[in-house]
Amino acid sequence: MSSYAKILQDLTFLPGILESYGGFLLFVDTNGLPAQLVYGLTKQEVSSVLSGIASYEDDFNSDHDIKVSHQFGDLTDKYRCWVRKHESGYYITGLPKDIIYTSSLNLMPIGILKLDQHWMAIHSNAFLEIILGVNQHELLERNWLNYLDPDEIVKARKFLLTSKTLNNPYEFEQSVMTPLGREITVSVQISADYGTGSSGIEGYMVLVSDITEQEEAQRKIVFAANHDPLTKLPNRRALNEFIERHINPVSIKSWVLVFIDLDGFKQINDTLGHAVGDKLLVEVSDRLSGFIRRGEFICRNGGDEFLMVMANTPYSVLANRITELSLLVNQDVLIDKHEIHMKASVGAIPGEVLTEYHPPQAQKSSIVELWFTVADAAMYFAKHKMKSHWCIADMSFIHKVFNHLEHKQHIETCVLNKNIDIYFQPIDKLYALEALTRFKGPLQGSSPENIINAAIEIGCHMGLFNLMAEQGVKVYAKLFHASSLQSDEFPYLNINLEAPQVIDKDFIDNFVQHLKQEGLSPEQVYIEVSEKMMMFDLSDMVSAFNQIKQYGSNYW
C-alpha cells in the first residue's frame, strides 16, 4: 500500500470534509517531498507550504504529533494549517480562515450576530437562528432589529459610543415571540469590536442566550418563597413587600388592614382530620381571593389567619363591605360529606385613623407595627365581644388597645409568677364556696372583672383562666382533704366561667384534669356561666354544656 493510500485509510472521512470546505490535505514524506495526494492547492501554494517546513524542523523531528497550529509563508492570510506526524512522513491540513470562523461560531452554544460599524448584520450563527426560530436571511442587514427591543438598541449604541471601558458590554433581557408563537426570554449582550491595533470601532458583536428555563426556574423559586404552599395565597413575607412598595406614613390613609381568624378551626382539625381542615383553608382562600378588588392584597398569615389590605372608603361603605366579607366567609361549606358551619372573626383598622394618632412624619415602621397591633386587637374584640363577629377600630379603640397592652404585660407577669390569691365566700348556709380571685403585684387592687375583660380583648386570657382555675382547685382541695366530711357533705365548689372558657374544649379538659390530680370529683363542682354566653353561637353553647354534663359537673 502506498504512503498516501495508508493516510487515506487512517484519516477516514477527513479528506471529504476538507474538499467540501475548500481546504487542503498535503502529504510530505520524510525527505520533505510532496506526495501525490493534494487537495485545493496550486503548485505555488505547495511550494509555500514546503518552504515553511524548515521553520518547524524541531516539531517535525518530535516523537509526538504536532498539535499546535502553523501558518506557512504566503498562505498566512488565507489558510489556518495544522501539521501532524505520520509513520511515513507528515501530513498538513488547512482550512480557509473564514470557514474556520464561521464553523467556530456555529459550534458555540449561544446566539451570535456579527455587525459592521454601521450596525448592519453581516453574519449570524446557527444557534441564533434556532433561538429565534428564523433563518439567516431574516437576520442579516437591518432585519435583526425586528427581533430585539428598539429602545434597548438605542441605549446600547449610546452606551458603547460613550463608554470609557472598551471591554464593557451593554446587557439587557427581554421577551421574544417566535414565529411559531412561543414566548421566550433572552439575555442580550452587545459589545464593540475595536479590531487589532485599531483606535476606532470596526463593528459590534451581539450575543443572545435563551434563558427561558432559568427564568422559569427563578420564577418558581420566587413564587415558593412568597406564597403559601397549601392555598397558593401570598404569605406574610409577600405582604411585607407589598407594604414596603405601596404604603408610607402618608399613603396609609388610603388603605384598611383587615385581620381574619377562623373560629373553631382547631376543633375541625381534631375531629374531622387535617385533610378536611386543609380543604377548608383552600375554600376560604378562594372566597377571599374572589372578594378583593384590583390593587388590593390578601395573604395567609399562617394557621387559620388571613390578612387583607383593602382600599379605604367612608365608614358606612367600609362597614357594609366588612359585613359582606363576614357573610361570605361564614357561608356553610360541604367537604367530604361533612357540612361545616363556618365562622370567622374580622378586625379592621383604617389607615386614616392611625394618622390621627401618629403624625405623618413618624417612622414608617412604628406606624405599620401599630397598624398590625390594632387589627389583631380588633379581631380579638370581635371574637369575644361582638355578636356580628366583626369590628372596625376607631380612635377610642386605639386608646383602649394601649391601655390593654399595658394590662397584657402585667397579666403575663401575673401568670408567670402566679400572683393571685383565692378567697372563698359562702353561698347560703355554707351550701357552696364561691371561688374569687384577687391579684397581687402590679395588678393589686385592680377589678378582676376589668382585668379579665382586658385579657379577653387582647387575646391573653386563656393563660390567666388556667391559672385561676388551677389555683382555685388547689385551695378548695386543701380545705376538703383537711375536713372529715364526705364529698356529698362538704360544700361544693362554685366557679364563675366566662364564655371563652366554656366553649374551649381544652380548658374544660384541663380543668377536669386538675380536679383529678387533687383527688376531687367533677360532681363537687358547680359551674356558673356568664350571661355573655348568649352572645355566642347556639351550637357552641350546646356542645359546651354537653361536655360539662358528660364529666358530671353541674352548671347554671
UniProtKB/TrEMBL annotation:
SMART domains, per the entry: GGDEF (SM00267)
Taking every annotated instance into account, which residue ranges of this chain make up the domain GGDEF?
Answer: 253-395
Q: Where in the sequence is the signal peptide annotated? A: none
**InterPro entries assigned:** Biofilm_reg_signaling, EAL_dom, EAL_sf, GGDEF_dom, Nucleotide_cyclase, PAS, PAS-like_dom_sf, Rev_trsase/Diguanyl_cyclase
Instruction: Report the residue ranges that make up the EAL domain in this protein.
Output: 394-556
Please identify the protein, giving its name as recorded. Answer: Diguanylate cyclase
Q: What is the lineage of its organism?
A: Bacteria, Pseudomonadati, Pseudomonadota, Gammaproteobacteria, Alteromonadales
